[in-house]
Write a structure and sequence with these properties.
TIM Barrel, 8-stranded parallel β-barrel, single chain, globular, alpha/beta, 264 residues, two-stranded antiparallel sheet
């Protein structure tokens, strides 16, 4: 059993427990359920920003503990104040050290979109995302069937959420549908966690132009951002580059300044 299989097996148990603990009706009565989400696409395409999706995560299956001391409110608001376009917050506890409470803490101190980074396997999690104040959900093409992706994306849209579909290779391109807002190319293989940035460049021309393109993982230099922009990408998801520093928000601010100042 690879890492991804272990994560999904654990997620099935967690969702079953969550359903018993909190009903959908209770989620619909939450403080944030009625709010209008921020536009993921609008913030990524804003010419005054550089498209960084700054991620908050405490650990990963491949690296173990990355940052056990960073505070979610301070880090995420620091990301936003630095000029990040979007926040990405891991809500998986077992493998990434996150919880839904991290989004709940980040929401009131931020006025940019929040991506709930999670392994979505059930519509319950989509309702939960809306209830905790997320604006965007992640759907994984190597976890869900084409039919599930379309069903989940359509349902998320009905709640006002936007959808980032993550693919790994050209075989997963058929998973793209009309309810998707952005297509992310994960440069990290979720089965063995190896990283290869060339994945983004290889798939850039194969993703239909009407979808915002996002490159995920393995990005650490301003030069790479500019090369990806030239290839058609508008979003750049970065986590470990920032989180491995003592103060991730300062690392993010410094990196964004490097991107802005970069000259070819």
């Amino acid at each position: 059993m690879n890492i991804l299989d272990k994560i999904i097996a654990q997620k099935q148990k967690e969702v079953a427990i969550a359903k018993e603990k909190t009903t959908i009706k209770q989620l619909e009565q939450s403080e944030y359920f009625g709010r209008t989400p921020y536009s993921f696409k609008q913030y990524l395409l804003d010419e005054n920003r550089v498209g960084i999706i700054a991620e908050f995560k405490r650990k990963s299956p491949s690296k173990g503990i990355i940052n056990a001391t960073a505070k979610v409110e301070q880090t995420t608001s620091g990301y936003a104040n630095s000029g990040a376009s979007v926040l990405s917050i891991l809500t998986d506890l077992e493998f990434f050290g996150g919880t839904t409470n991290d989004v709940l803490q980040a929401r009131p101190v931020n006025t940019i979109p929040i991506l709930r980074k999670e392994f979505m396997i059930d519509e319950y999690q989509i309702v939960e995302a809306k209830a905790i104040g997320a604006d965007v959900i992640l759907l994984l093409a190597n976890v869900l069937s084409k039919a599930q992706i379309k069903q989940f994306a359509k349902f998320a849209k009905s709640l006002g959420l936007q959808i980032l579909l993550e693919i790994r290779d050209k075989e997963e391109l058929p998973a793209i549908n009309e309810y998707i807002d952005a297509v992310g190319v994960n440069n990290r293989n979720l089965k063995d966690f190896n990283v290869n940035i060339s994945q983004s460049f290889e798939l850039a021309k194969l993703i239909p132009h009407e979808f915002v393109k996002v490159s995920e993982s393995g990005i650490g230099e301003a030069k790479t951002i500019h090369e990806l922009k030239q290839a058609g990408y508008s979003g750049f998801l970065m986590g470990e580059t920032f989180m491995k520093q003592l103060q991730p928000e300062l690392a993010c601010a410094s990196f964004i300044e490097e991107v802005k100042a970069y000259k070819q």
